[in-house]
Amino acid sequence: MSHSILDLIGNTPMVESKVLNKNPNVKLFFKLEGNNPGGSVKDRAALNMIKNGLERGDFGKNSKLIEATSGNTGIALAMIAGIFGLDIELVMSEKSTIERVKTMRAYGAKVTLTPAEVGIEGARDYAEAKVKNEGYVMIDQFANNDNWKAHYQSTGPEIWKDTQGKITHFVSAMGTTGTIMGTSTYLKEQSESVSIVGVQPTDNSSIPGIRKWPQEYLPKIFNSKKIDQTIEVSEDDAREMARRLAKEEGILAGMSSGGAAAAALRLAETLESGVIVSIVCDRGDRYLSSDLFE
């Protein structure tokens, strides 16, 4: 029995691709992070960042917290901040889906929408100005080591255990890069031969949750040495694969999960044998008001 909703974060299931993967010598598993209570992989990092920040005294009940987000981290922070009795303002682009905005507000967060044309970078600039001029405290997922350490402590060990140490390739979208940094660190400690594959968008592709950051916005937690290979996917490929995941595998997920799955399947075609684990980072129901599944 769980004593708190927070006890349900992590230990997410993995399911094997039974339709999309056509290589009989390769096993492809999808790790279903949408099964976290806040609906995404970001629950792990949000809990670690808030819990450790409170313990260190970085902020407290009287602090004004703020964070820029493309969506999933914001939902996770809203849920967990509410449980700890913290006030938080979440900043994101006005082109975010209404489900995301309403979910954050349902958890009790203040939501500020920035102009679509300035993107997540503009949301980050807004939050930083609030910290500088109005005494806010930023969680700062892009530079907070508790982000990647959450995956070192949980995601990586779960994958190693559930594949019985047989994983050969780990595939993850790269946004804040916390998931891939932490999981890579753990898996490489178990076996240097595990290949870590990061997924980025092609030029001029817009895939929420997957970024190719300008140098000045590159997450401080990112270390390129922890990635063995990068696969670029187009927005069209990510969209199509999100639809195929739902229709053919019964996995309703967002576009970044579609991008990671597209990369994982492309990788599977090139291998003589192997065990691939691809992160399905969230649930697709928070995209139903968009055109993703149309």
Describe this entry's structure for a reader:
With 294 residues, the chain is α/β, with parallel strands linked by helices. The chain has helices spanning 42-56, 72-83, 98-106, 119-134, 145-162, 178-190, 235-249, 255-270; strands at residues 14-16, 26-32, 64-68, 87-93, 110-114, 137-138, 169-173, 195-201, 229-233, 274-280. The protein has two domains: 5-35 and 151-280, 3-Layer(aba) Sandwich (Rossmann fold), CATH 3.40.50.1100; 42-138, Rossmann fold (3-Layer(aba) Sandwich). It contains eight helices and ten strands. α1 packs across α5 (145-162), α5 crosses α6 and α7 (235-249) packs across α8 (255-270). The mean pLDDT is 96.
Features:
8 helices; Rossmann fold; alpha/beta; TrpB-like_PALP_sf; P-phosphate_BS; 39% helix; Cysteine synthase; 6-stranded mixed beta sheet; cysteine biosynthesis; pyridoxal phosphate; 294 residues
